[in-house]
# Entry
Amino acid sequence: MLSAVICILLDSLIKSGIYSDYLQEHLAPSGYLKIPTDMSDYLKGCRFLPKLNNEINGMRNSTYKERLASLQNLVLIMFEDDTVLIPKETAWFSYFPDGAFEPVLPVQAAKLYKEDWIGLKTLDEAGKVKFVNVSGNHLQISTSDMKKYMVPYLEYQTPAPTGQTPTEASSYQWFSKVGHFFKDLIGLSEDQPLLHTVY
# Structure
């Protein structure tokens, strides 16, 4: 009984202060905490996630939508045993309905998707969103899953802007460096197959 009372008190304290200026300025995770039963305070006080998700009416940034929709692929990886993202399906932009903690709605049922606030619907309808489910806890991806689901998308695939060779384009240079970083990180060299086991 006492533990239930403590939980209720802690819950009230967190809800009353999580979107306060002080916590938003000093506690990074508070900027991406969305309490579905407190949407009004979330939209008014949360400084990061509502802007990133283009959730604020009258303040939607069309550049966010254009940039996300311009991606060649978007790989969304959900970890089966995730204890950081609650619910774990938020890795796929799925979430609870406003006002409740159940059920988890698929992303296609969310306003963010249906009204295409960030370009996710555009990407998905073009077949460019990959919904991947892997075992493990938050960000504990195995080398084999990394090779299977991430490495193939680290190869440069888009021609450079007109008048530039691919190696002159700054996006190519950045992308190439990221690709090489991940290949080095998981022990791949240019002559190794992607599915080579690294011990």
Observations:
- The chain has a mean pLDDT of 81.
- The beta strands are 74-79, 129-134.
- The two ends are 50 Å apart (CA to CA).
- Residues 62-138 form one domain.
